[in-house]
Amino acid sequence: MSVATARLEARISAELHALIKRAAALQGRTVTDFVVSTVQDAARRAIEESEVIRLTLSDQEHFAQALLSPPPAAPALERAFARRRKLLITE
């Protein structure tokens, strides 16, 4: 079973290349392995930071309380539900 691959190229300064090469050597890895794993970690962190909402303990308690005991629906929401019910019944 073969795994599909893609190529990634980037132009970087000689100084950055030397820095990356040194860091990879310190970890006993190839430059490619070092760059791929580092970029993969950074990509996962960026996605997690974008998709995960972190709440304080107090905010977690307020959120749970709102789910367990939601406030009554506002009149506009009640009217919207009534219109929706009417549309679903007539179709």
From TrEMBL:
InterPro entries: Ribbon_hlx_hlx, TacA_1-like. One of its GO terms (biological process) is regulation of DNA-templated transcription. Coiled coil: none annotated. Keywords: Toxin-antitoxin system. The keyword Lipid biosynthesis does not apply. SUPFAM superfamilies: Ribbon-helix-helix. Belongs to the TacA antitoxin family. This is DUF1778 domain-containing protein. The lineage of its organism: Bacteria, Pseudomonadati, Pseudomonadota, Betaproteobacteria, Burkholderiales.
